[in-house]
Every structure is written in structure tokens, then in C-alpha cells.
Write a structure and sequence with these properties.
two-stranded antiparallel sheet, about 220 residues, alpha+beta
């Protein structure tokens, strides 16, 4: 076996049929794994330890936005993933979130039923509001923990009730999730949004049955 070092790459060149066969087997069975180089036997030998599959050892962050690949699209707040929360039906998490900008109950129901860009656009056209709003009999300050908690509860209801969304979230495995958009939200920063998704994913991974289909999730006072 010939060994060459080219910049940051270590090349192993088989010279016999047996060595070529071994290399072929390694490529077939461990071609996507990550290896760690170490010395052994008083530094007389170099060993490559198999650390496991690349996606597990070096997970690449996944940015959940409108343009995310189709497999993960249902995770997005914009996705049409109807759910029921406190006996109210919403067309998406985005619809729920944008509906909080309205004071009139009719407007809240109308906007809450929307999804995608339509929901976001409706929220952008909401009349100017103060730093607080009323929801569930409580006064909530925008952009605070209590406001973020509403997002968590809405996402929890969505993933509990929508099998596609749940499957998409679990399909991300242990990859770090991010939510980076050109203009970050002032009320729910991307880092908070991503943290909500990852914590809910951890909950699902801990044993929530795939057939779980809760119809209502009640908010915690």
C-alpha cells in the first residue's frame, strides 16, 4: 500500500489485488463515514478509527425557511398544516402567529385560517398595535418569553396533529436546525424559533408514538 500526502489529503494507493479488494470493501461499507487519525504502538503505526456516518458525526445545519427542500417543508411555519388549539382551528402556525396582531375576533379567525405567503401578507397589513395584546384572557408583551411560549404551544399542537409535519421534523435526525432569513423577526428571532423546533424534536424522539393524533392542545396558564 502506497501512502501519499497531498495538501490536506492522505491518499492510500493499493498495489496488490488483495489491497484493491480491501479498499473496495471499505468504500462500499464505510465510504460515507468519518475517520480519526491516531498513532499506535509507540508511534510506529498510524490507525484510522471509524467515528461513524458523516451526517451523525458532523451534522450539517439545516435552515428551515420557505425555500427548504420538499422533505422538510412541512416543518416551516408557512406550511399548510391545519391544527386545533384551544378549540380554534388554524391553517398554519404562521396563520396563528399573524392572527395575534389583530384585536377583532373576526379578523383573528380569518387570518388564523391562512397559510404560506398569504398568512404573512395578512399579518403585514395589520393595523398598528401597541407593545401588548390580549390572548386567552391574558395580557402579553410582544417579543417576550410569554409571546414565544405561544409559538411553542402552537408548534406543539401542529406536530402532534399533523403526521407529515411530524415525519419531516423527525427526518432531520440530530442535525442542528436554524431559521435564517434576510430580515430577522423582532418578535420571534430565528434562534428562538430554531430552538423551539429542536426541543420539540427531542420530545418526539423520546418516544411519542408516530400514530399520535391529538386534536386539542391546551395552553399552560
Amino acid at each position: 500500500m502506497k501512502i501519499q500526502i497531498q495538501h490536506v489529503t492522505i491518499c492510500l494507493s493499493p498495489e496488490t489485488d488483495d489491497e484493491r479488494s480491501i479498499c473496495a470493501t471499505i468504500m462500499q461499507t464505510r465510504g460515507h463515514d468519518v475517520f480519526s487519525l491516531r498513532t499506535s504502538g509507540s508511534e510506529k503505526h498510524l490507525c484510522l478509527d471509524d467515528l461513524g456516518a458523516r451526517e451523525s458525526v458532523c451534522p450539517v445545519p439545516l435552515n428551515i425557511t420557505r425555500s427548504v427542500e420538499a422533505t422538510y417543508a412541512p416543518i416551516s411555519n408557512l406550511a399548510a398544516t391545519p391544527f386545533v388549539l384551544d378549540d380554534e382551528r388554524y391553517g398554519s402556525v404562521e396563520g396563528f402567529w399573524q392572527s395575534l396582531k389583530f384585536t377583532d375576533s373576526i379578523d383573528r379567525v380569518r387570518v388564523g385560517a391562512l397559510a404560506g405567503g398569504e398568512a404573512k401578507k395578512a399579518g403585514d397589513s395589520a393595523p398598528p398595535t401597541g407593545i401588548t395584546f390580549e390572548h386567552g384572557g391574558r395580557t402579553i408583551v410582544r417579543g417576550t418569553w410569554n409571546h414565544w411560549e405561544l409559538m411553542r404551544v402552537a408548534c406543539e399542537a401542529k406536530f402532534a396533529q399533523d403526521r407529515r409535519a411530524r415525519k419531516a421534523l423527525l427526518a432531520t435526525g440530530n442535525r442542528p436546525l436554524t431559521h435564517r432569513v434576510p430580515k430577522d423577526s423582532r418578535t420571534i428571532p430565528g434562534v428562538i424559533m430554531a430552538d423551539i423546533w429542536m426541543k420539540l424534536r427531542a420530545h418526539l424522539q423520546s418516544g411519542l408514538p408516530d400514530g399520535h393524533d391529538a386534536r386539542t392542545v391546551t395552553q399552560t396558564p
